[in-house]
Amino acid sequence: MDNLPNCPKCNSSYIYEDGNLLICPECAHEWAAGTENPSNVDEMVVKDVNGNILMDGDSVTIIKDLKVKGASGPIKMGTKVKNIRLVDGDHNIDCKIDGFGAMSLKSEFVKKI
């Protein structure tokens, strides 16, 4: 069996080859053989309205009233949201808001506390 490198994204040792690609089954990261350098890993950078970099677990504040489809009222400006999770996509923050439940927010409508 070949001596394959660990995954540059999650450091898993369960790597397999598929043609010219190396694939990690744990995080689904794919990369070309020979580019194992962690500096080549695409990292998602999410910034708040002021340009501060957000990380998983941060607390943020809503900067304007946000209308929510199907809800009786908007999420008010100044609402604090704890323990955010960053995700890929148009709405790049997943969180739970008291009184509303699970929500997806855009980072342009929050500021880091």
Automatic annotation (TrEMBL):
SUPFAM superfamilies: Prokaryotic SH3-related domain, Zinc beta-ribbon
Pfam families (UniProt xref): YjdM (PF03831), Zn_Ribbon_YjdM (PF08274)
Secreted listed as a keyword: no
InterPro entries in UniProt: YjdM, YjdM_C, YjdM_N
Protein YjdM N-terminal domain span: 4-32
Keyword Hydrolase belongs to the record: yes
Domain named Protein YjdM C-terminal: residues: 46-112
Keywords of the record: Hydrolase
Molecular function as annotated in GO: hydrolase activity
Family of this protein: Belongs to the YjdM family.
Official protein name in the record: Phosphonoacetate hydrolase
Upper classification of the organism: Bacteria, Bacillati, Bacillota, Clostridia, Lachnospirales
